[in-house]
Amino acid sequence: MKILVAVKRVIDYNVKVRVKADQSDVDLSNVKMALNPFCEIAVEEAVRLKEKGVAEEVVVVSIGPKACQEQIRTALALGADRGIHVESDVAPDSLAVAKILNKIVAEEAPQLVILGKQSIDSDNNQTGQMLAALADMPQGTFASEVVVDGDKVQVTREVDGGLQTVELTLPAIVTTDLRLNEPRYASLPNIMKAKRKPLGVKTPDELGVSIDSKVSVLKVEAPAERSAGVKVADIAELVEKLKNEAKVL
Amino acid sequence: MSILVVAEHDNKALNPATLKTLTAAQAMGDDIHVLVAGEGCADVAAEAAKAAGVAKVIHADNAAYGHHLAENLSALVLSIAKNYSHIVAPATTTGKNFMPRVAVLLDVAQISDIIAVESADTFRRPIYAGNAIATVQCAEAIKVITVRATAFDAVSAEGGSAEIETLDDVFASDKVSFVGEQVAASERPDLSAARVVISGGRGMQNGENFVLLEKVADKLGAAIGASRAAVDAGFVPNDMQVGQTGKIVAPELYIAVGISGAIQHLAGMKDSKVIVAINKDEEAPIFQVADYGLVADLFDALPELESALS
Ligand SMILES: Cc1cc2nc3c(=O)[nH]c(=O)nc-3n(C[C@H](O)[C@H](O)[C@H](O)COP(=O)(O)OP(=O)(O)OC[C@H]3O[C@@H](n4cnc5c(N)ncnc54)[C@H](O)[C@@H]3O)c2cc1C
């Protein structure tokens, strides 16, 4: 079967983002960018399914400016076979992303689509679910285990109460949680090989999807900062302060 | 127009996040309906009808909704969506699972995880692990919104007397079935709603050592949380993870033990009222947000804390 993996270029997770002085957005100039960690887990899962013989081909798609071809190449270096870049200088909202992905799904007809559960920039946690509904596929979100068996896939999901397992009829959508796998590091030969793997470019226009959004960002502010408090010498002082100063005991 | 709040519950009782979501909904408008969809959940519908400010409860009871499968729940919500200006649910794993389906099938964008309601169409939400707060305006005809429950106070669970209407329509996808679940049974308060939370990180070294936290938690009536590192290492189950991509908590008192204070962890707890950090590394970033920091070995500090509380 064919697996489609959607990946996003985001700020590196180690970077603490700053808000622009004019409060129009966060400042991403000269900031290290990377593959969204959940997307990396999605690529890894697809590649493992290929290595197990469950999948024949892993296609990655990314939507964004030209620079996100870097992240497609990273995914190719991790073992994906082919890339699709949907070029857009404006960042589309999750609704538009889901519509674009739905067009790619219609073209590629994958049996399984794997996405990250959320991107660590907008923290929306929407795209996979939206795509599932649009493509009329069942969904296994926040996956910590994925077992493909014939025309079904069993997905164990991390939920607030613990774990839930659902069985989906393929084709289906999976979104990844942190415990699904530990992504490998790309080896140098694989990074070199990835440069020669096919990468096609499309635009939202060509796919017939409008990326206009009905949601406008009025401002972006820094959160209220917590300031560091005091160091206490020992447990006795801590308990005394919690009782008499903070009054939480 | 009216506002629909989709209740979070386990078929037995209303999850406290629902009462907090009702507070957010009240800031959007005043004719508030609550959908209670589940299996054998008549008690929950009755409970929702008593919540302050609820005008109507819609009770949909069927095996198809028993496990809140997103495919079925979203189809049900969609079937009544056109009556509402806002569809609102708590940003729990259930809400996160089905709400985007409702939004996309209505062809509208969703606003996730709001922490404040500025007006009926303008909301505040954290982005970048809470390192920035965006104010967004939504011009969609129907606003589909998930709510970060910890950012709102609960409405009173008593005082309302809403009518309960039954909805018999059944939406059951044949492409998905529930196989099983592993639900952590605990005597302790719910992590997301507890007054005191004590969390352990990689510094705990193993799962057995969490007993040291449990003993303190017993004294404080606290819930126990963990960092991602502690969950990844298998010390404790996933439902205990606090952070950007785990649970969001905002207790009166949060005690971080053997946790360094990565931004992803802070994103889940920095709105706690009082933060205590116990860490042997005085440079640990957790101390930058802690009201009270104790530089100490946790294996000495925890037993001392337990006896100091006795
Ligand atoms: C996409 C993504 C999502 C993430 N989501 C989350 C999330 O939701 N929640 C989360 O927590 N993390 C999350 N993380 C992980 C995060 O970046 C950190 O790796 C993690 O929080 C570290 O956990 P820790 O503080 O327990 O471990 P460490 O950073 O290893 O810190 C351990 C601390 O224990 C202290 N210590 C060790 N021994 C002792 C002792 N005997 N006594 C006292 N102190 C001691 C050390 O000084 C150290 O400060 C995420 C990461 C990514 C990439």
Describe the structure in your own words.
The complex is a heterodimer of chains A (249) and B (310). Chain A contains seven helices and 15 strands. With 249 residues, chain A is α/β, with parallel strands linked by helices. Chain A has a single domain (2-244), classed as HUPs (Rossmann fold, 3-Layer(aba) Sandwich). In chain A, helix 2 (69-77) crosses helix 5 (188-194) and helix 3 packs across helix 4. Chain B is an alpha/beta fold and 310 residues long. The interface between A and B is large, with 79 and 90 residues. Strand 14 of chain A pairs antiparallel with strand 8 of chain B, so a sheet runs across the interface.
Keywords:
heterodimer, A: 249 residues, alpha/beta, Rossmann fold, nine-stranded mixed beta sheet, two-stranded antiparallel sheet, 7 helices, 15 strands, 28% helix, B: 310 residues, 2 domains, seven-stranded parallel beta sheet, five-stranded parallel beta sheet, 8 helices, 16 strands, binds flavin-adenine dinucleotide
What Rg of chain A do the Cα atoms give? 21 Å
- CATH C-level of the largest domain in chain B: Alpha Beta
Query: Largest interface, and how many residues on either side?
Result: A-B, 79 and 90 residues
Overall residue-averaged pLDDT value of chain B: 97
CATH class of chain A: Alpha Beta
| Count of extended strands of chain A | 15
Q: What hetero molecules are bound to the protein chains?
A: flavin-adenine dinucleotide
Number of domains of chain A: 1
Give the topology, please.
The complex is a heterodimer of chains A (about 250) and B (about 300).
Chain A: E1 2-7, E2 9-11, E3 18-19, E4 26-27, E5 33-35, H1 37-51, E6 57-64, H2 69-77, E7 82-87, H3 94-108, E8 112-116, H4 127-135, E9 139-149, E10 152-159, E11 162-169, E12 172-176, H5 188-194, E13 199-202, H6 204-207, E14 215-221, E15 230-232, H7 235-244
Parallel strand pairs in A: 1-6, 1-8, 6-7, 7-13, 8-12, 9-12
Antiparallel strand pairs in A: 2-5, 3-4, 9-10, 10-11
Helix pairs in contact in A: 2-5, 3-4
Chain B: E1 2-6, H1 16-26, E2 32-38, H2 42-50, E3 54-61, H3 70-81, E4 84-90, H4 93-105, E5 110-114, E6 116-119, E7 122-127, E8 132-138, E9 143-147, E10 163-166, E11 176-183, E12 196-200, H5 210-220, E13 223-226, H6 228-232, E14 253-257, H7 263-269, E15 274-279, E16 292-295, H8 298-308
Helix pairs in contact in B: 3-4, 5-8
The complex binds flavin-adenine dinucleotide.
